[in-house]
Design goal:
The structure holds two protein chains of two kinds.
Chain A (H helix, E strand, L loop, with lengths): L1 H5 L1 H6 L11 H4 L1 H22 L11 H13 L2 H20 L2 H10 L1 H16 L6 H8 L3 H25 L3 H9 L4 H38 L5 H10 L3 H29 L11
Chain B lengths: L10 E12 L4 E13 L4 E5 L6 H9 L6 E6 L2 E2 L7 E4 L11 H5 L1 H5 L4 H14 L15 H13 L5 E5 L7 H17 L3 E5 L3 H7 L2 E5 L6 E6 L8 H4 L2 H19 L10
Parallel strand pairs in B: 3-8, 3-9, 6-7, 7-8
Antiparallel strand pairs in B: 1-2, 1-4, 4-5, 9-10
Helix pairs in contact in B: 4-5, 7-9
Classes of the chains: A mainly alpha, B alpha/beta.
C-alpha cells in the first residue's frame, strides 16, 4: 500500500478515468478499499459501544467476542458439523431447484403449457412458504429431506418465474431474423431464446439464493437437531448472544459468497454487454 | 466465389393485399391493396412511400415472414409460402444479435440454413472483407458505429449468397455522409454480383440513385401509385448523384408524395 502514495506525480497523471494511463492503485481498488473501510469503521464503532458498557452483553456481543467464539466453535468441530448439515440441505435443495430453468424456458416458449401451469406457479409463488412447513414435516418427517424440500420450494419459483419473464421479452426482431434465415426451432431456441434469457435466469438464480437460505433457516428453526438455523435457535433461547451472532455471520458470509460467484458468472457470460453507466 | 454464384432470381408479387382485424375497434384495417410488382433478374428496384404505407410489411410478405390476405408471391415462377434460401433480408437497424461477435453475426444466416461450418465461415470472412470490416471480426455490435453495424447487417445477408436481396431501410439510421458511402459501396457490390434487389427507403434521392426503377406507394392502404424508370447509366458514381436528371426526378417524386399526403384520410397510424 505505501508504494501507491510514493509517486505523487503518477497519481496526478492518472487521476482522470479517461486519461489513457493505467489507473493508480487507489483508483483501481477504490471499490474494495472504500467498502472494507466502511465495514471496519462500523465494526470498530460496534466494539467501542460494547466495551463502554452502554449495552448489556446479553443483547449485543462485541465483535471481538463473537470472533473468539467462532474460532472456539470451529476448533471444537461444532461449527463444521452445523455447516455440513446446512450446506447439504442448501446444495441439494438449490440443485433440485435448477430444474426451474428448463421448465421456465419451456413454459415461456409453449403458450399452452403456460396456460396449464400458470395457475399453479402463481399460486405457489405467492403463498408464503412457511404455510407449507407443517405439511412438509408431516409428509417427510424431521430429517434432512424436509429441509431439502423447503429449500427447493423457496428457490424454485423465483428462478422459474424469472426465466419465463426472460422468454417473454425475447426481441421479436431477432426471432424474425432467425425465421428469415429458416432456422430450425432447435437452432432458434439455442441461438436466440436462450442467450436472450441469460440475464433473467441469472437474476432468478440470485433471488433464489436468498430464498434458499431463508428456507434453510426457517426449516431448521421449526424442526432440526443440527444446522446453522438450529444453532441460532438454540443460542437465542439460551441467551448466548455471541453464538447467535456466529450463526448469523456464517449465513451472511455464505450468502455474500454465493452472490459473488453468480456476479462473476454473470460478468463472464455477459461480456458482450455494453458497460452500464457508473455513477460517481 | 462470385464466379459460381447462382444467377439472379426473378421476384414477382401479384395483387398483394393485407388486411387485419383490430379487435379493440372491431374493424378491419387495410395495410396493402392490390400491390403488383415484378422485379426482373438482376434488377435493382427501390420502393418509396409515406411512412406507415406498408413498405416494411410488403417486404416481410415477400420474404415469407407474413402471409398476405390476398395475392401471391412468386420467385422464378414458384409460389412462395415461407422464407427461402434464395432470398435474404437486410433488416432495419438493431437486427444484429448483441451477444455475437461481428463474425458470429455474419455467419449466422448461413448457420441457420445449415451450411457446413467451413463453408459458412469462408463466406462470412469473404463478405466481411467486401464490406470493409476485415479488422473487427471479434468486436461486439455495441462496439461499432452505426454505419459499421449496417455493414455487418448487409454482410450477413450477402453471406448466404442470395439470388434476391430484400432491404428494409438499411441506411435510415446513419448520418448523411456515412449513408452516401454505404450507398456507393452497395452500388459497387450490386454491379459486381448477380443479385436482384428490392430496396425500401423513405429517402427519395437514395431511391433514385440506387434504382433501375422506383416504385411509389400511396398513403395507407398502400397501393402502387407510379413506377418510374431511372434513366441513369451504370456504373453510377458521384456524377450520377449530382446529375440534373436525378434532381428533376427527385422534385417530381417529392411532388407526387406530397400529393398523396393531402389526399385520403388524415390520421397517420404508425406501423406496428
Amino acid at each position: 500500500m505505501p508504494d501507491a502514495i510514493s509517486g505523487p506525480a503518477e497519481t496526478s497523471r492518472s487521476a482522470g478515468p479517461h486519461s489513457g494511463q493505467p489507473a493508480s492503485y487507489w483508483v483501481r481498488y477504490e471499490r474494495p478499499l472504500i467498502g472494507l473501510t466502511a465495514v471496519g469503521a462500523i465494526l470498530g464503532l460496534w466494539e467501542v459501544v460494547c466495551r463502554s458498557g452502554m449495552i448489556k452483553p446479553i443483547f449485543l456481543s462485541a465483535p471481538s467476542q463473537i470472533g473468539a467464539t467462532a474460532v472456539r466453535m470451529f476448533a471444537s468441530g461444532e461449527l463444521v458439523e452445523h455447516l455440513r448439515v446446512s450446506g447439504a440441505e442448501f446444495l441439494m435443495g438449490y440443485a433440485l431447484a435448477l430444474t426451474a430453468i428448463p421448465l421456465g424456458l419451456m413454459t415461456g416458449w409453449y403458450r399452452r403449457l403456460n396456460f396449464a401451469l400458470d395457475p399453479f406457479l402463481t399460486a405457489l409463488y405467492v403463498t408464503p412458504r412457511v404455510a407449507f412447513l407443517p405439511l412438509i414435516f408431516l409428509w417427510i418427517g424431521l430429517g434432512l429431506w424436509s429441509k431439502v424440500a423447503i429449500v427447493f420450494l423457496g428457490a424454485f419459483f423465483p428462478i422459474c418465474i424469472s426465466t419465463i419473464a426472460g422468454v417473454r421479452t425475447v426481441d421479436a426482431v431477432h426471432l424474425r431474423v432467425a425465421r428469415s434465415f429458416q432456422a430450425t426451432q432447435r437452432h432458434l431456441f439455442f441461438t436466440i431464446v436462450l442467450p436472450s434469457c441469460v440475464p433473467f435466469i441469472l437474476a432468478g438464480l440470485r433471488l433464489g439464493v436468498g430464498r434458499a437460505l431463508l428456507g434453510v433457516v426457517v426449516g431448521e428453526l421449526f424442526g432440526a437437531t443440527a444446522g446453522i438455523g438450529y444453532l441460532i435457535s438454540v443460542a437465542g433461547s439460551g441467551f448466548q448472544t455471541d453464538r447467535l451472532f456466529v450463526g448469523v455471520a456464517v449465513l451472511a458470509t455464505f450468502g455474500v459468497l454465493c452472490n459473488e460467484v453468480l456476479v462473476r458468472l454473470e460478468r463472464r457470460v455477459e461480456a458482450w454487454r455494453p458497460p452500464a453507466g457508473v455513477g460517481q | 466465389m462470385e464466379s459460381n454464384r447462382p444467377r439472379a432470381g426473378k421476384l414477382e408479387a401479384v395483387g398483394i393485399s393485407l388486411r387485419y382485424h383490430q379487435p379493440r375497434l372491431d374493424r378491419w384495417t387495410s395495410v396493402l391493396e392490390d400491390v403488383s410488382v415484378t422485379v426482373r433478374p438482376g434488377e435493382f428496384v427501390t420502393m418509396i412511400g409515406p411512412s406507415g404505407c406498408g413498405k416494411t410489411t410488403f417486404l416481410h410478405i415477400l420474404d415469407g415472414l407474413l402471409s398476405p390476405t390476398g395475392g401471391t408471391v412468386r420467385v422464378d415462377d414458384r409460389v412462395v409460402t415461407g422464407p427461402g434460401p434464395e432470398r435474404a433480408m437486410v433488416f432495419q437497424e438493431a437486427a444484429l444479435l448483441p451477444w455475437r461477435t461481428v463474425l458470429g453475426n455474419v455467419v449466422y444466416g448461413a448457420e441457420c440454413l445449415g451450411w457446413d461450418r467451413e463453408r459458412a465461415l469462408g463466406s462470412a470472412r469473404h463478405w466481411l472483407e467486401v464490406v470493409g470490416l476485415r479488422d473487427v471480426p471479434r468486436h461486439y455490435p455495441h462496439e461499432l458505429s452505426g454505419g459499421m453495424r449496417q455493414r455487418v447487417n448487409l454482410a450477413r445477408a450477402l453471406a448466404v449468397e442470395p439470388r434476391i436481396l430484400l432491404m428494409d431501410e438499411p441506411f435510415s439510421s446513419v448520418d448523411a455522409q456515412t449513408r452516401e458511402m454505404l450507398q456507393a459501396e452497395l452500388m459497387a457490390i450490386f454491379e459486381r454480383t448477380e443479385t436482384t434487389v428490392l430496396f425500401v427507403t423513405h429517402d427519395i434521392a437514395e431511391a433514385i440513385y440506387l434504382a433501375d426503377r422506383v416504385v411509389v406507394l400511396s398513403r395507407r392502404p398502400g397501393r402502387i401509385q407510379e413506377i418510374v424508370e431511372v434513366d441513369l447509366p451504370r456504373p453510377r458514381d458521384g456524377e450520377a448523384r449530382r446529375s440534373r436528371w436525378l434532381r428533376d426526378c427527385e422534385d417530381y417524386l417529392r411532388g407526387l408524395l406530397r400529393l398523396t399526403r393531402t389526399t385520403g384520410d388524415r390520421a397517420v397510424e404508425p406501423m406496428r
